[in-house]
Design a protein that fits this description.
Layout: H1 2-42, H2 45-52, E1 61-65, E2 77-81, H3 86-98, E3 103-110, H4 124-135, E4 141-143, H5 145-155, E5 161-165, E6 175-181, H6 186-201
Parallel strand pairs: 1-5, 2-5, 3-4
Antiparallel strand pairs: 1-6, 3-6
């Protein structure tokens, strides 16, 4: 009888030990989850951009979008909400890309931007001028909005796109940057291809 009591007591101790271990494990998991949330909260869009830039290269895209730009489900698309001034964000993005020697931006704007009237979108004239001034050195190309959306959808199936959404509430003001190699331009590529053709003939 005494032996049975000892066995029951030992069983209770084992169960209690397992319970305490489970509680401790749950506590650790909860702390890790909270820590991960705090880390994610502390990371700003600028941290995200600077962290991503070294990995981005030829055929990746950066997009500085107005606040109504739609979220997309393409696998390579990542959206970060800056909730800051459009031009301040654009300036920081252009500066960061300019300091990255391995990439250079090919810049596109919505073709529709040139046709948005001031009476339907107050402030659009000033916005257009600011965009043109900021992007003047890049030889910006106007492309229809739907064509740019379709291109991004296609690109995001294979390559990564980082989109930073601002708080701007004017239509067709998104800036699209297709990244190209910063140290190997189209002229160098054309000369190399020509040489390859000549060698093939020989």
């Amino acid at each position: 009888m005494q032996k049975t009591h000892l066995q029951i007591f030992a069983l209770i101790l084992v169960c209690l030990g397992l319970f305490l271990m489970a509680c401790e494990s749950e506590k650790d998991e909860k702390e890790e989850t909270e820590e991960a949330k705090e880390t994610a909260k502390a990371m700003t869009w600028e941290d995200k951009l600077l962290g991503e830039l070294p990995a981005l290269g030829h055929r990746n895209w950066l997009v500085v979008a107005d606040s109504a730009f739609p979220a997309q489900i393409s696998p390579g698309m990542e959206v970060v909400v800056a909730n800051e001034d459009h031009f301040a964000v654009l300036e920081k993005v252009l500066k960061a890309v300019g300091q990255s020697k391995h990439i250079r931006p090919i810049v596109y704007l919505d073709k529709e931007l040139d046709y948005v009237p001031e009476d339907l979108a107050p402030g659009i004239n000033i916005c257009r001028k600011r965009l043109r001034d900021m992007l003047s050195r890049y030889g910006t190309k106007p492309v229809l909005h739907e064509e740019l959306i379709a291109r991004m959808d296609q690109v995001a199936r294979t390559f990564r796109i980082l989109m930073i959404k601002t708080n701007l509430t004017l239509p067709y003001t998104t800036v699209f940057m297709e990244l190209d190699c910063g140290y190997w331009g189209p002229e160098s590529e054309a000369k190399m291809r020509e040489k390859m053709k000549e060698d093939k003939k020989e």
